[in-house]
Amino acid sequence: MNSNFELLDYIIFIGYALLILGVGLWVSRDKKGHEKNAEDYFLAGKSLPWWAIGASLIAANISAEQFIGMSGSGFALGLAIASYEWMAAITLIIVGKYFLPIFIEKGLYTIPEFVEKVMFTGILTDEGRRQSVRLTGGRGS
After folding, report:
1. Got the DSSP string for 35-67?
2. Distance of alpha carbon 79 from alpha carbon 37, whole angstroms
3. Which string of b and e fits 39-57 if b means at least 16 CB within 10 Å?
4. How big, in percent rounded to 5, are the helix, strand and coil portions of the chain?
5. How far is CA 100 from the centre of its chain?
6. Which one of 67, 99, 124, 139 has the largest count of C-beta atoms within 10 Å of its C-beta?
7. pLDDT by residue (tens digit) across 26-72?
8. DSSP 33
9. Does the pTM of the predicted model rise above 0.85?
10. Distance (Å, rounded) from C-alpha 111 to C-alpha 96?
């Protein structure tokens, strides 16, 4: 098998990279004077419709595991492996219904932000603080 790139391969690769860069820059342009922040990056400025958010959740969960691992497990175990995916869907609904409003109210956009607030800003109760000290060996609380 020939693993050398030809000139056409380089042209296609560079053209594709420039196209993706151009589309990204064009989509991310903004009004003058608006400084982007974490809300703009993680929540798209709260301007996306529900179907786009749902599609991004599904797309973010698709990986080689689904294409290769789940297919192999489905072949070996049968339809029972699908229960794993049904549980993931139910979990996403619960998180979206009950936890997401709390995260948005507190201004938390990522799990590391949540951990930072819990571990370093005194949100925990006294018992929770003792547990975090015990788990982290004294670092963090």
Report:
1. PP-HHHHHHGGG---HHHHHHHHHHHH-SHIII
2. 44
3. eeeeeeeeeeeeeeeeeee
4. 75, 0, 25
5. 13
6. 124
7. 877 777 766 777 777 767 767 778 788 778 777 777 777 777 888 88
8. T
9. no
10. 14
